[in-house]
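Changelog-adjacent note: as of this version, every example in the card shows the full chain rather than a window. The one below runs 138 residues end to end.
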Amino acid sequence: MHYLARREHSRAELHSKLLPHVQEGDDLNAVLDELEKRDWLSDARAATQLVHAKRSRYGTQRITHELRQKGIAENLIDQALPQLKETELETAREVWQRKFGVVAQDAKEKAKQMRFLQSRGFSMEVIFKVLRVAEMED
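Full-length structure tokens:
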């Protein structure tokens, strides 16, 4: 209950956290089933919470990767993707503006900006659009 009181966890994530504490005769899957039955454990809520927490700083690729790491089912990830992709360009612009704010003056600086945005999980298509728009505005 301590883990669930802090934030939402996926079933797989909670399973891996509780596994070291399981003693002989304990049925961890039964406990997790009971938590899901009482609606205290939900992969859908865990996915929604992670998307809300990360969407203003990271791109679709990074968020998708984190959802998979936490054991979220592919169908729940697929449900979150359309809303992420709708706002990805605007998010990338805001992240770029906060970090750099000025157009790169040479190829080395441009590569640095591209690597930064790529490390945040933005696609190359979105990165090129952000940098192109910044150049046009300058």
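Structural remarks: The two ends are 53 Å apart (CA to CA).
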